[in-house]
Amino acid sequence: MMFKPKKLLAATALFAGLLSAPAFALPHVVILATGGTIAGTGATSTTTIGYTAAKLGVDKMIESVPELKQVADVRGEQVAQIASESMTNEVWLKLAKRVNQLLAQKDVDGIVITHGTDTIEETAYFLNLVVKSKKPVVVVGSMRPATAISADGPINLYNAVTLAGSKEAIGKGVLVSLNDQINAAREVTKSNTSTADTFRTPDLGFLGYMQDNKPHFYRMSTRKNTADTEFDVSKLDKLPRVDVVYGYANMDRVAMDADIAAGAKGIVQAGVGDGSIAAQMMPAFRDARKQGVVMVRSSRVGSGIVARNGEANDDKEDLVVSDTLNAQKARILLMLALTKTNDTKDIQRMFYTY
Ligand code: DGL
């Protein structure tokens, strides 16, 4: 059977096209940089504390890990350049809006956010509640500056970009990945001031591992997040003031009264034990409720459920409990809740939902 010239030409062109196409198209990942130690530099290669965070720009960070280009078509944007103890609601809102803009684009498959580790858990949980997409969002940092021997930033960044470009991470909510582990934004917390294995998920454990250039998931968070959220910050340029009051023996109401006088619309108490309220603090809670301030009982303990009507009569005092959210995360959920309602029953529903 002789091939006719036209068919032969078409067949050749098709074959040549197949040869030139990449074995597979790399995912498109955008890195949004905010600063932190992962962008930090120290005076010497052995400086692992006392360095300066937030020095290297996002393009420098991408250049310093050429292997990124093997796993993703990657580009970067500098959203902020701060040490994360200085994170603000304004940066959160700017970041959230940019993430949602990018994820709405067909040519963006996932997002990595480089961030200081001090408040990584807060930014990650905030995004977990306001990102309107199931596409992967991975927040990453490092515990050693870029200039240190065995800096953990490069491998953490490589793993984060790999994870953000993976199909496995779709629909898992916002993830925090350092130290070859994958944690859920809702439960992860910084557990050590300075070691590389600082990010833990108390009691419940992390979701899986980054190993052999791919994610290995074994669990996922059960609470609503990202695309299923009821919160929308697209039209907000500020968030309601919510403060955390730390509980301890012999505390008094001065700090709480000052927060409310400064305009707090909500207070989260990081209470002792199961979110207990000291007898001397009860009048302050009642006065706050009379002023319409929403009061949430959380705990300073670090794990476990703060249950309704356990250490306080929440029904009678019209209080909200944080369930398993620590105080800094309960503050974030309460801030977003107050953008929609100050009805304590509806807010309690939100604490059982997210
Ligand atoms: N200043 C801290 C921060 O930016 C450094 C800790 C870190 O990024 O690892 O969060």
Automatic annotation (TrEMBL):
Q: Which residues form the active site?
A: T37, T117
Q: Which UniProt keywords apply?
A: Hydrolase, Signal
| Domain (Asparaginase/glutaminase C-terminal): residue spans on this chain | 241-351
* E.C. code: 3.5.1.1
Q: Domain of life, per the record?
A: Bacteria
Q: Does the keyword Cell inner membrane apply?
A: no
SMART domains on file: Asparaginase
The UniProt record lists the L-asparaginase N-terminal domain at 28-220
Coiled-coil spans in chain: none
What does UniProt give as the signal peptide span? 1-25
Q: What is this protein called?
A: Type II asparaginase
Could you give a GO molecular-function term held by this entry? asparaginase activity
Family classification: Belongs to the asparaginase 1 family.
